[in-house]
Amino acid sequence: MNPEPFLQLDRVIHEKGRLALMSMLAASPELSFTEMRDALSMTDGNLTTHIRTLQEAGYISVTKSFQNNRPHTTCSLTSAGKKAFSNYINLLEAIIRQNKPK
Amino acid sequence: MAAFPVNSALDTNGFVSQSVGMESNWAAEHLQVIRTLMERSALYRRALAPIMIFVGVLGVAGGVLGWVLNLNSAQAFLGYWAGVGLLALAGSFLLVRRQALKESEPFWSPPTRRVAQALLAPLFVGSVAGLLALACPGWDFLAPWGLPAFWMVLYGCALTAAGFFMHRGIKLLGWLFILCGCALMATRCCANGPLSLADGHRVMGGVFGGLHLAYGIYLYFTEQRRNEP
Fold it and tell me: What range defines the domain where residue B20 resides?
């Protein structure tokens, strides 16, 4: 049994809150802060922390603007984020493949 | 136990190998959660109850008014229902826009775009058929009394297509429209002569108005009220 795929799992993405964010952003070109908060039932603080961690890793880009005089924050995956997420999925699939009874 | 003797079970590789074995199911569950989240992210999430109730009330009122006003010529029937359809479209647009403004979100979001694209083709065909029947009195491809059934089937197809990007039984509503349209076509097998356009008003009001209204009331009591202040 090869432990490699398990060891290679990206620790930034692996945390469940961040993985949820990455999964949602992978399916949508961009999502607003409120959409992500409501869909994942996170608090503002919790979501902000996860967004900051992913942004520092270079996986998501954050755009801040104003809509009707209210701040509007949107996030989207960067190309590095898309690649990291794709690698993460591939590793999960590799783990499953390894343990499939032959 | 032979695979993981005590000595080697404590070394890093052995421990990780054991973890990998245990985590196989976890990995599968993880992938399932990721898939669910990706699907959820792509779904259209605006509250549908107000839109359905608005379209339903408009449809029922339109059916009653058309019947009472005796709009029984083909041109009056088609023009009248084209107007009701445009009013329903404009009202729905304003309701969706209001919800987007309330939540400080863009109106033309990717899920809205996907739903609009799914609705577009069948609604386009239905509109073209209505316009041709309205503009060319001699057009015999579809009789005016045949259009309600045609519209129901196309509208049902539009809803089932949009249902791939929406929550809560939109596909089922689409199928109900398709079945109603097919049933209306089937009634022509045993009917004598053309359908009266007064009946056409009742059918349009009952099916388009009634089904939207019933679904809107159901959603009103069950939909999560996330758009309320």
Answer: 6-40
